[in-house]
Design brief:
The protein starts with a helix and ends in a 17-residue tail after the last helix. About 10% of the residues are buried. The chain is about 40% helix and about 10% strand. The protein is mainly alpha-helical. The protein is rod-shaped. The protein has a domain of about 45 residues.
Length: about 90
């Protein structure tokens, strides 16, 4: 009987670790206000949401210009840099 209890405990532990590893491995980075993200590995930017979902761009400016063309008046392209992070 103790072996079965140990085997059950071991099985539950292994399943739990595998299940949690999926959540821990998931990308935790957020999206910019218009639904795009900086692609550090491949370079450039890619969009997950909004009118440009699924498209990639070489620069942030190119992304914002395309967004401006899609939704004139809704996009503020005057901001060239991200706001400073507060500690």
């Amino acid at each position: 009987m103790p072996f079965r209890r140990y085997l059950l405990w071991l099985t539950i532990t292994i399943i739990s670790v595998c299940a949690w590893s999926v959540f821990l491995y998931a990308y935790s980075g957020g999206l910019a206000p218009y639904g795009y993200r900086n692609d550090r590995k491949a370079g450039g930017f890619h969009c997950h949401r909004g009118p440009l979902a699924g498209q990639s761009f070489a620069t942030k400016d190119e992304t914002l210009r395309k967004l401006q063309a899609e939704k004139p008046g809704d996009i503020d392209t005057s901001k060239k840099t991200n706001p400073p992070k507060t500690p």
